[in-house]
């Protein structure tokens, strides 16, 4: 085994380990090192039969293993094992070994690739099950990932963007051709459309107290100070305050529509005490647990509501189930 003490042109000596002893490196090896800036051993998995024959022929001619190692660029230990095997059985050919066979055939590999390109959002586990049902070959998720990785297909997150019309797509394409290098990131099959502000929906308001609640208020327009005073404070909170005792304390958050001047006048005129709520403080209102439960129940409905009228009915249906259990929820 060759060991060079340093790797620069100032090297003057190295060592060869032979039989447990270290002797100084030969002058020919030093010259090769100084001319090549180091001794580079070529890494090969297997030697072909022609090269094996050349090595054995040189050894039979009296050449040393070190000289042959430097000439052919193979580690001396490899040459030593080859020579030992030749002396034992007179054969230097590599023994036949199939290794572990591939679990998939080339046709099955192409099937995985075509399926993955057809459905860009299919998972490796789904591909494994689909291959098993189509061909009867069972492979793991990791095997599917390796097969796809050989051609450059890897798991990626889809790009989220606002819904685009044909005109929008055309204008963006024209701009991108002038300013961006073409790629696959913004291809339609790699995009999940999402409204920037969540799309259409309902604004829901409700009030709770232990063992009691207000009616659920649902509207489709944006909440303003005028709407909050007219439809929430006067129609719900004022009546709720009249049914309670003098210790009634109203708690809401610092949304801009809740703190408008026209809104501040209403609690004062109706003798409604409001809880102080510091700016930029966390929302600790217990009703958040109710909204969370309401959202989970609506999302779990089968089939889920897809149009606004169905969503509105689902809100009232699920609130009728949740509100009687307010004490348990909060």
TrEMBL record:
**Pfam families to which the protein is assigned, alphabetical:** DDE_3, HTH_Tnp_Tc3_2
Q: Single Gene Ontology BP term?
A: DNA transposition
InterPro entries in the cross-refs: Homeodomain-like_sf, RNaseH_sf, Tc1-like_DDE_dom, Transposase_5, Transposase_Tc1-like
Which SUPFAM superfamilies has this protein been placed in? Homeodomain-like
Source domain of life: Eukaryota
* Domain Tc1-like transposase DDE, residue spans: 234-302
The segment(s) forming the Transposase Tc1-like domain are 109-180
- What GO annotations for molecular function exist for this entry? DNA binding
Where does the record place it? Nucleus
Naming one, the record's GO cellular component terms include: nucleus
Q: What is this protein called?
A: Transposable element Tcb1 transposase
């Amino acid at each position: 085994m060759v060991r060079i003490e340093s790797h620069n042109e100032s090297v003057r000596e190295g060592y060869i380990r032979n039989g447990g002893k270290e002797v100084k490196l030969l002058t020919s090896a030093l010259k090769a090192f100084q001319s090549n800036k180091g001794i580079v051993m070529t890494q090969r998995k297997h030697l072909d039969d022609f090269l094996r024959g050349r090595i054995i022929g040189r050894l039979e001619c009296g050449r040393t293993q070190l000289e042959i190692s430097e000439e052919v660029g193979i580690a001396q230990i490899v040459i030593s094992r080859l020579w030992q095997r030749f002396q034992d059985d007179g054969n230097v050919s590599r023994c036949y070994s199939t290794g572990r066979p591939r679990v998939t055939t080339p046709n099955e590999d192409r099937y995985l690739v075509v399926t993955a390109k057809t459905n860009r959002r299919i998972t490796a586990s789904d591909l494994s099950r689909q291959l098993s049902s189509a061909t009867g070959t069972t492979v793991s998720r990791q095997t599917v990932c390796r097969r796809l990785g050989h051609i450059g297909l890897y798991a990626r997150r889809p790009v989220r963007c606002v819904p685009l019309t044909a005109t929008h797509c055309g204008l963006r394409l024209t701009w991108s051709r002038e300013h961006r290098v073409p790629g696959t990131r913004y291809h339609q099959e790699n995009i999940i459309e999402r409204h920037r502000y969540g799309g259409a929906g309902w604004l829901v308001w409700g009030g709770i107290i232990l063992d009691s609640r207000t009616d659920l208020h649902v509207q489709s327009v944006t909440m303003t100070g005028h709407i909050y005073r007219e439809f929430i404070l006067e129609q719900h909170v004022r009546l709720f305050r009249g049914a309670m005792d003098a210790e009634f304390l109203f708690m809401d958050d610092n949304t801009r529509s809740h703190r408008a001047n026209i809104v501040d006048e209403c609690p004062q005129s109706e003798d409604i005490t409001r809880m102080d709520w510091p700016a930029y403080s966390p929302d600790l209102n217990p009703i958040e647990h109710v909204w969370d439960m309401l959202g989970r129940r609506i999302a779990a409905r089968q089939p889920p509501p897809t149009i606004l009228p169905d969503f509105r009915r689902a809100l009232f249906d699920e609130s009728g189930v949740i509100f009687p259990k307010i004490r348990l929820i909060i």
